[in-house]
């Protein structure tokens, strides 16, 4: 926690300090009132720092790449297929998996807020929640992809999924060439978070 | 908020111009300040008390007048304070003093440390099987509602009054518009509706672009 902001803005320090004081004050009051329990607060943070993150989704993708029956199940009922690996719950109650192909590239956004499949990807990154991404992903996805260093063939269909209800989307990127014979664990290491949102591609072996 | 103030979402950003480029970030970075995980935990723990539902939270966030000037977790924090102040669970003088000055009000429940993992793993499913039969079928053409509504809704502005195709029928889900207003769950059939880029953005739309939203039945009429 507390990594430095790579994009500092003017006046941010004083604002952050004020916000920090405000959070401390609120936390003190809520603890004093017995509305929240310190141990529960710690357990929530610990969950999203260590247990619930994009490596979960990477394991799902690697299994789909390795096991055609699992891939098929994932496309038919992602909620159940993902739950079979132990990933369920908050902000992932209803999952749909989207397989990118040579014909279509899937990309996910939430223009209204920050809907994101937490059990498989963890907390959304700052850019996913930001105005630039939310405003442009539905209108100029190729421009957005270029900012992530991704250039797709011009004939490739771009399919944007705006998560406006409680359905959450997980992109299954194409398996990179040259990965034949790799184990699920080796494959999972190639799967990036952004490739499961559609703003990136998996790493090459 | 009083009834005389028109409802305005500051969060409906799809298609708007002028926000600049996206700034990608590595996937190891979880937070950008020490207070952010603390704010996350407070919001989730208070959400678990059952004092409000997720759609009420979204309404509280998107109506913050300074929404676009706040960082994401600052939005969360301001909405949490707003929801608690409205329910007199918290008082302005307490925020100023940084300590409890008024006795607590009873809550439906309090989240205990030992319950956190199970609560996160359970989530809050919104599917309500069998609640209503869907009116539209796969492949059917539909037009989305044109007019804005004076309450929280999940139909984005850029997709209002547009013709699309039903791409998936999800079954009935808790209807966000009703839920946000405290009018119960009112489950309604939910659909994925896909639009051609040109329908949304005109002749200059990016070639090969299709965009879908998830829309509840009251947002739709036959096209």
Description:
The complex is a heterodimer of chains A (205) and B (223). With 205 residues, chain A is an alpha/beta fold. In chain A, 44% of the residues lie in helices and 12% in strands. Chain A has helices at residues 12-33, 38-51, 54-66, 68-76, 78-83, 118-121, 126-129, 131-136, 141-147, 184-188; strands spanning 94-99, 104-109, 157-162, 167-172. The longest helix of chain A is centred in the N-terminal third of the chain and has 22 residues, at 12-33. Chain B folds into two domains: 35-122, Orthogonal Bundle (Cyclin A, domain 1), CATH 1.10.472; 141-222, SH3 type barrels, CATH 2.30.30.50. Chain B has seven helices and five strands, in the order H-H-H-H-H-E-E-H-E-H-E-E. A five-stranded antiparallel sheet of chain B has the order 4-3-2-1-5. Chain B is globular and about 60 Å long. Chains A and B meet through helix 1, helix 2, helix 7, helix 8 and helix 9 of A and helix 1, helix 2, helix 3, helix 4 and helix 5 of B. Strand 3 (157-162) of chain A pairs parallel with strand 4 of chain B, so a sheet runs across the interface.
Oligomeric state of the chains in view: heterodimer
Q: Mind telling me which CATH architecture of the largest domain in chain A this is?
A: Alpha-Beta Complex
Detail the poorly predicted runs of chain B: none
Low-confidence stretches of chain A: 1-8
Pairing-aware structural class of the strands and helices of chain B? alpha+beta
Beta strand count of chain A: 4
- Mean residue pLDDT of chain A: 93
Instruction: Give me the CATH superfamily of the largest domain in chain B.
Output: Nitrile hydratase, beta subunit
Radius of gyration of chain B: 20 Å
How are the strands ordered across the major sheet of chain A?
Answer: 1-4
Tell me the distance between the termini of chain B.
Answer: 36 Å
The CATH level-2 architecture of the largest domain in chain B is identified as: Orthogonal Bundle
CATH superfamily of the largest domain in chain A: Nitrile hydratase alpha /Thiocyanate hydrolase gamma
Q: What shape does the CA trace of chain A take?
A: globular
Beta-strand percentage of chain A? 5-15%
User: What's the tally of helices of chain B?
Assistant: 7
